[in-house]
Input
Amino acid sequence: MIDIKNCPDCGHNSFFHNKDKGEVICRNCSYVIDDTLIDFGEDSRAFDFEEMSNKSRTGAPFDPRVANNLTTAVGNSTDLDRLPKKTKQLMQRIRKKNSWTSSSLEVNFSTALTQLRLISSYVRLPDQVEREAAVIYRRAAEKGLTIKRSIESIVVGSAYIAARQYGLPKTMDEFVKASKISKKVLGKTYKMIVRELDLKLTPSNPVDYVERFGSSLGLSAKVQTEAIKMIEKSQNQEITSGLSPVSVAATTLYLSALKLGERRTQKEVSEATNITEATLRSRCKDFMKALKIKVKIR
Output
């Protein structure tokens, strides 16, 4: 049933199996040796919700965003002062022993997953992406990557990788604003995670950013469609190689808006896409020359 032959707390070798809760308990000191045993017996039938809840042998599905064993404190100094002397000494020993049982990895998860929830809320990541980010962080922490980088940088890197895997149009600048790390640190960290965990990331497609930036600039669907056609044409001619997908999306939207008469200023495009006006002008010149686009840029 379990590999442990003696109780790790008292050394006794007589155990009790609580089948209802899936626990193995020491008969001598009541220490819970294991609480995750699975019952492989046949399922019992249920005909209503109450009967189903009473006979159910499973709980909620595992959520990687929740630490396995959350750290807790047994009482506080105010409560202990009200107890009799002997009881107070006993509770102090229990508190001390409770602090020993929390491993460094569990404390790490508790701290990191709290940060992940805050960053996901700021960047507005869907639940499934947040769960994937938690899984990536757990793998990174278990492999010891938190020794090479700070917890926060690993958390932000995991969230960025998860967003990339799901094809969300989220830029590195958004994750930098949601945290206290620099863009350079984020770049190095997420590349290290991808390399160490052997993850597969496909390059970001500028098309993914067109709808988002177009909506921010109030551009019509006609302009966005024209921008997508321009991106596909530039990709076929391989002029987007080595360029940021954000700058490509911003450039094609700007040129498409000018071409179809929905003029936007360079400042408006720069603020919506978070690229500099100098970069926008430079990209426009390259695209106009390669795609033979004739528009007037002010």
Q: What stands out?
A: The chain has three domains: 1-59, 66-202, 207-291. The chain has 13 helices and three strands. The two ends are 77 Å apart (CA to CA).
